Amino acid sequence: MGSDVTFLIFGAALLVAVVLPPALRRVPLSSPVVLLGLGCLIGLLPVVGEEQFSPLVHRDFAEHLTELTVIVALMGVGLALDRPISLLRPASWRGWSVTWRLLGITMPLCIGGVALLGWWWMGLTLPAAMLLGAVLAPTDPVLASDVQVSGPGQPSERTGDIDETDEVRFGVTSEAGLNDGLAFPFVYAAVLLAGAPSLAAWVGDGGLASWVGFHLVGKLVIGVLVGAAAGWVLGRIAFQSSRWSLRVAERGQPLLAVAALLLCYGLAEVAQGYGFVAVFVAAVMLRAVDRGHGYHRQMHGVVERLEQLLTLAVLLLLGITLTNGLLNHLTLGGAMVGLALVLVVRPVFGWAALRIAPREERVGGRPLGRAERLATAFFGIRGIGSLYYLAYAAGQAHFPQLPELWSTVGFTILVSVVVHGVAATPVMSRVGVEEA
């Protein structure tokens, strides 16, 4: 595609992205649906080559673009959460009960369920099935914006209250903030299995023990510690430094959020930890230093604008690839796995996790209502994080069934964006009526 045509297409798409959100505010259709559809239409143009934007051909570009988009979204999610939590105050963890159950119960069950379906329905090898389960497990922090909290100290559009009392939005937001990093150990498991002669050989050679000790526990702990330390230090400097030149909160310099997300991600990765986890934890720690300060809204605004631009690019490119060869290797089994995950697996496992030992999760003091549980379980949106994980794994090990995996993941994201995008407005409105 010529550069002039590229500028024309992306300029028109950016204009659509600017005017779209207000126009769709009360319409059962989300911006990602329209942007993805626009990308699909662009992909049908004769000037677009089949391999021009293919992630199979341009893996490095796909990996780094989606990686940046996810870490920007994670910083925005962490800054947006109003509900406090402290590593040193276990009592504060109770307010995140929904989050822990979605992470500790729903996500592992989804990984196992999708892996089993991939092996059974698609005939995938064990490493490929494990990779598919891990890639499709996380709730996406980018595309779930329609059912997430509004921002630091912002009232919910559904209830009119500060979003820390809106359990559905809080649950989906906090889950999306953490499970992108928690899916990484299982991606690594698939990569390690792909390089082993067999599962028995991998376990017998100490591969399983090494994976549990380092990839499952060690890298997670490092990510949490790096994020907590970096967020606390940056917050103390920005809000409480004795030198006015360093108290950027008073000067209203919101680019600290961009510096923080890049710095924390880089530090955690260099330290062999999970950068996604570090970025989210750092954002939460920044909020904790001076929770009510208006500077958080300024930082969140900058991150949100950057996220919108990156999301625009990713959705357009994904749409172009969907009508230009990405779905060429989609099988009936792959389509069934995608539909099953969005419509059955995630909702059922999410509902089961939220039904176990119901507690007074809500700040207002009562357990989740039936409509709230259903909505929280249903909105497990799959998206840009899945693209990153698959592109990353493809660069770490050889997966013979990689084209089929890309087709299945692309189809699943398409289904999720359409189903959840159309359902977001009416479902959230219905939940507000029933729980009022």
UniProtKB/TrEMBL annotation:
GO term, biological process aspect, one: proton transmembrane transport
Main location class: membrane
Domain of life of the native organism: Bacteria
Start and end residues of each Cation/H+ exchanger transmembrane domain: 15-428
UniProt keywords, alphabetically: Antiport, Ion transport, Membrane, Transmembrane, Transmembrane helix, Transport
Residues spanning the membrane: 6-24, 31-49, 61-81, 102-122, 182-204, 216-235, 255-288, 309-327, 333-354, 374-393, 405-423
Location in the cell: Cell membrane
Membrane topology: Multi-pass membrane protein
Any one of the GO CC terms: plasma membrane
GO molecular function, one term: antiporter activity
PANTHER family linked to this entry: CNH1P, NA(+)/H(+) ANTIPORTER 1
Name by which UniProt lists this protein: Sodium:proton antiporter
The organism of origin for this protein: Desertihabitans brevis
